[in-house]
Design brief:
The complex is a heterodimer.
Chain A (H helix, E strand, L loop, with lengths): L3 E4 L2 E4 L5 E7 L7 E6 L6 E5 L3 E2 L7 E6 L2 E6 L9 E6 L6 E2 L3 E5 L1
Parallel strand pairs in A: 2-11
Antiparallel strand pairs in A: 1-3, 3-8, 4-5, 4-9, 5-6, 7-8, 9-10, 9-11
Chain B lengths: L2 E5 L3 E2 L5 E8 L8 E9 L3 E10 L3 E5 L7 E6 L4 E6 L8 E11 L2 E7 L3 E5 L2
Parallel strand pairs in B: 2-11
Antiparallel strand pairs in B: 1-3, 3-8, 4-5, 4-9, 5-6, 7-8, 9-10, 9-11
Chain lengths: 107, 124
């Protein structure tokens, strides 16, 4: 199975900050990475697919990049509604697997 | 507007079978462009994909056997829904279970629509 390792596991930030979350795959997976946002008590929300393509309706302050084994999700200017936990997920092969999550907290 | 409505018991006894159903509105379980997934989440193991069913001229099922064996996912075309069965549960199967639609673009699969989740507790 492909392991997805996210870092950091949590971070503290302020509104307006630039936030970068990283995700590393245990093997090369081209650009087969998706990103999700989850708020407490809610289902994950789909943000990015194919490493860098924003889902329709996702604000442009979110961006994804990377290929091979290393990927990043960037929030260019953190907004109050962005405090949440973010997960990467590989779709290179089955079983589909997720990273452990990065919790973005208020500083 | 596509929606997924989950149903099923929130409490299951050890060694029994966990059964959940996900009813689809606004899309078809027989869609040639979607897959129908079950995912669970627990504090100890995070998000775990359990498996999926999808139709591409015939039915396909794929399971995460390394996560959990004894899983069956079925589609019911007459009711436009799909189901999850987990056999012989134990307390480690306690989790929030989600159904999710899998979308696909150029071989990239993603989960673009999720049910609200069902907390299933395994306890006697």
């Amino acid at each position: 199975d492909i392991q997805m390792t996210q870092s950091p596991s949590s971070l503290s930030a302020s509104v307006g900050d630039r936030v970068i979350i990283t995700c590393r795959a245990s093997q090369s997976i081209s650009m087969y990475v998706n990103w999700y946002q989850q708020k407490a008590g809610k289902a994950p929300k789909f943000l990015v697919y194919a490493a860098s393509t924003l889902q329709s309706g996702v604000p442009s302050r979110f961006s994804g990049s990377g290929s091979g084994t290393d990927f990043t999700l960037t929030i260019s200017s953190l907004q109050p509604e962005d405090f949440a936990t973010y997960y990467c997920q590989q779709s290179y092969n089955v079983p589909l697997t997720f990273g452990g999550g990065t919790k973005v907290e208020v500083k | 507007q596509v929606q997924l409505q989950q149903s099923g018991p929130g409490l299951v006894k050890p060694s029994q079978t966990l059964s959940l159903t996900c009813a689809i509105s606004g899309d078809s379980v027989s869609s040639n462009s979607a897959a129908w997934n079950w995912i669970r989440q627990s504090p100890s193991r995070g998000l775990e994909w359990l498996g999926r069913t999808y139709y591409r001229s015939k039915w396909y099922n794929e399971y995460a056997v390394s996560v959990r064996s004894g899983i069956i996912i079925n589609a019911d075309t007459s009711k436009n829904q799909f189901s999850l069965q987990v056999n012989s549960v134990n307390p480690e199967d306690t989790a929030v279970y989600y159904c999710a639609r899998g979308g696909q673009l150029s071989n990239h699969w993603y989960f673009d629509l999720w049910g609200r989740g069902t907390l299933v507790t395994v306890s006697s």
